[in-house]
Structure formats: structure tokens, C-alpha cells
Amino acid sequence: MYPLLFRAVLSRFDPEFAHHAGMAVIRVLGVPPFSWATRALTAPDPSLRVETLGLTFPSPFGVAAGFDKNAVGVRGLAALGFGHVEVGTVTAIPQEGNPKPRLFRLIADRAVINRMGFNNAGADAAARRLARLRRGAPDTVIGVNIGKSRVVEVEDATEDYVASATRLAPLADYLAVNVSSPNTPGLRGLQAVETLAPLLRAVKEASGRTPLLVKIAPDLPDEEITAIAQMAVAEGLSGIIAHNTTISRDGLLTDASTVEAAGAGGLSGAPLKKRSIEVLRVVREAVPAEFCVIAVGGVETPADVQERLDAGATLVQGYTAFLYRGPLWGREINRGLVSRGTARA
Fold first, then answer.
1. What is residue 345's predicted lDDT score, i.e. its pLDDT?
2. pTM strictly above 0.85
């Protein structure tokens, strides 16, 4: 039913408008009695529980940052069967993001190009919402992804990240430092180990006991990924998220003129599958077995999730395929994992 709805109706709407319309429905699904009925259909099987970061995740499969930038749909997404929701990217200073249009579908590739630019209401607004969520949905695992405010110079990034961490860490189950989006000028330069290490050290201190992870780009050479992974372990981080969107446009099926017309931005979706597995394996080889590695990129089916778990992922996240698979995507993944025998102690 949903594939037909997407082809006939949703694909005709502006992607950003369609996302906001979908989020409005998701928000409704998070409110009783709708949430009760939704959970009855989508609750993950207990065998899928994962223990990591000092937390219990109902399923290894969760929602990646970018889908719910302002923590408005957490309850609905949890009701749809996702094992955790990573909100954001949140910046210390509210910002509108890049000019529209800034989100583009590549339907032939089951992919998306975005240059949203960390559009969000800011850390204070996110903190207020998270505080309410903690009262109303205490069992939902919520990660918070933080990024650099656009108006802040790169050389002042540490102070900016620390401001967000100080405000949000007490309300988050884990905190993720985003230094890998291609849509904020100068941001990816922060991934250089000599720059990244002191930044993460400062954010970790500000985060207190909240687990801290760093999200990296897939476009880094393998040796740099290894260096970041080893540094994350040495600095006492709790994990790595591998990975963000790519600036590559290699191997796309979509007509080249359509891709060119979309312009700059990060590519996500099915075309990232091969690189996603490669990056995951590089990271896993560089870190201890107990170190949390969250795999993201090119995830669409239960087989995709299982492949990443088999390759050493602790948890798996998705985003783009929600657009193409619909609201029961989380249930589809969870049921597929159960049928494949995925179980956690």
C-alpha cells in the first residue's frame, strides 16, 4: 500500500513539505490512545534487546539524526518500533539552515541529497522538549546529536559545542558530536585528529557521565578513520557513529542532469551501502570489542541491518529509507531480524 501511495501521491510533493507532513502524523501516533494501538502492532520482540552505553535498547535498529531535528516526534517514532531516536543536529544558537530548496529525492537510487544546514530551534528549545519527554516517555532511548552553530567561527567551535553539551547532556541518554556534515562550512576540517582530540576532550568534560560518541564522514581515507577511532578510544569516548552523508556522486542511476541540478549537499540512501560496510569494518578493527559502534548508511532491509550486525555494529540507524518504505519500516526491520534469528543477551 505505501509504495503505491508514495509513487502516486507523496513523490509529487516537495520533499521537505512531505517530511513535515509525515512528521505531523508521527507526532499524533505518539499520543495516547494512538500510541497504545501503534505499539501493539510494532513493539520489538524482547529477543532484540541490546545492552550498550549502560543502556537497554529495545531493538538494535534506531532512527538516525536529521529525521527529528527538534525532538518533536520522539514518542511517535518510539511507538513505531524504533529502538532509539537520535534527535538533532542541534546547535547552541537557533538557525534557519540553508536556503530552500535544500532536499532532493533521487528516486531511481532510493536516495536523497540534502543541504539542510543544521536547521533547528537551538539547544535551549531542544532542552525544554527533552525535559518534557523525560517526564512522559522515560523508557525511550534518546540520543542528542550536536553540531557547530553556523555563525560561530571554526576556531571557536569548541566553546560552541561545549555550550550545547552543557545544556543537553543531562537530558540525553547519549550525546553525539557531529563534525562530519558537508553542509556547514569548515565543519569537516574539525575531523583532523590534532583538532578533534581537544574538542572531544572539552565536550566530554562538559557532558559529565553521559556517554559521548563522535560521528564521522565516509569520505575520509581509511587510515584517517583508523586514527580517529583509536583517538576516540584513547580519549575515553563511548563510541563512534559511522557514518554521515557523502559528497560523492559515484555510481548513481539517476540522470546526471538531475543530480547536477540538485547541487551540493550530502548524499544518503542505498548508494552508500558498500562504503558503509567498509567504514564499519575499518572502525571495528581499530576499537575494542566492547566499544559501541553505530552503523549508518545504505540501510533499508532486515538483511542490511543483519549484515552490519554481523560486521561488528553494536547498533544500526536508518533515515532515508523511511521515505521509501513508510511508517511500518521499523516493524519490518524488527520482524525480519527475529525471523533471521537475531537475538541479544
1. 39
2. yes
- Among all residues, which ones are annotated catalytic? 181
Those residues with Cβ within 8 angstroms of residue 292's Cβ, 6 or more apart along the chain or in another chain: 52, 53, 211, 213, 238, 239, 240, 314, 315
Q: Helix, strand, coil shares of the chain as percentages rounded to 5?
A: 45, 15, 35
Contacts 24+ apart (CB under 8 A), 297-300: 297/218, 297/242, 297/243, 297/246, 297/268, 297/272, 297/273, 298/269, 298/270, 298/271, 298/272, 298/273, 298/274, 299/273, 300/110, 300/270, 300/324, 300/325
Distance CA 122, CA 128 (A): 10
| SS3 at position 316 | strand
- Per residue in 294-332, pLDDT (tens digit) is 999 999 999 999 999 999 999 999 999 999 998 999 999
Half-sphere exposure of 58 (CA within 13 A, CB side): 25
Distances (CA, A) of 145 to 4, 10, 25, 172: 33, 28, 23, 10
Report the Cα 257 to chain-centroid distance in Å: 29
Please report the beta strands in 13-148, taking only residues with DSSP state E, as ranges in sequence order. 50-52, 55-57, 61-63, 85-90, 103-106, 111-114, 142-146
pLDDT, position 344: 47
* pLDDT tens sequence across 198-212: 999 999 999 999 999
Residue 335 CB neighbour total at 10 angstroms: 17
pLDDT bracket for residue 3 (50, 70, 90): confident
What long-range pairs does 192-200 form, CB within 8 A, spacing at least 24? 193/224, 193/227, 193/228, 193/231, 196/228, 196/231, 197/231, 197/235, 198/158, 199/157, 199/158, 199/161, 200/231, 200/232, 200/235, 200/237
Look at 25-39, 132-146, 311-325 and tell me which has the smallest mean pLDDT: 132-146
Residue of 95, 312, 131, 286 whose CA lies nearest to 295: 312
Backbone angles phi, psi at 287, to 5 degrees: -125, 160
